[in-house]
């Protein structure tokens, strides 16, 4: 079920500030769309912690709809990764957008976080 953040500012494009969390398979597959930033990290953290706590095996986090991740968003991903490891699970990032993949490379978090490798184009 998607959760949306609401702001009370008439001139803001709310869709650009939202984080939409879709739990596709409870405890196993979560999709994050929009922005994982300082404004939305509490919702993102809560969704990932809940998914880790109720599931078993790999937790797949689909990032294909994520437009932006800032430093606080990276912290949420790293924290969820560590929590998953402590829970004998693995958090696997799926369909990482190119700009976010570059950010993970620049910060060397691509060496820490588990990223699903894209299937080769045929």
Descriptive keywords:
disordered N terminus, Transcription Regulator spoIIAA, 28% strand, globular, 5-stranded mixed β-sheet, 4 helices, alpha/beta, 122 residues
Report on the structure:
This protein is α/β, with parallel strands linked by helices. It has one domain: Transcription Regulator spoIIAA, CATH 3.30.750.24. Helix content is 35%, strand content 28%. It has 4 helices and 5 strands. Strands 1-2-3-4-5 form a 5-stranded mixed beta sheet. α4 (98-106) links the parallel β4 (90-94) and β5 (114-115). α2 (41-54) runs parallel beside α3 (71-86).
**Name given to the CATH architecture:** 2-Layer Sandwich
Low-confidence region ranges:
1-12
Helix content: 25-40%
- What is the CATH C level class, in words? Alpha Beta
- From the 3D structure, determine the CATH topology: Transcription Regulator spoIIAA
Number of helices: 4
SSE sequence, one letter per element: HEEHEHEHE
Q: Work out the count of structural domains.
A: 1
Q: What structural class should be given to the helix and strand makeup? A: alpha/beta
Topology at a glance:
Blueprint lengths: L13 H4 L1 E7 L3 E8 L4 H14 L3 E12 L1 H16 L3 E5 L3 H9 L7 E2 L7
Parallel strand pairs: 2-3, 3-4, 4-5
Antiparallel strand pairs: 1-2
Helix pairs in contact: 2-3
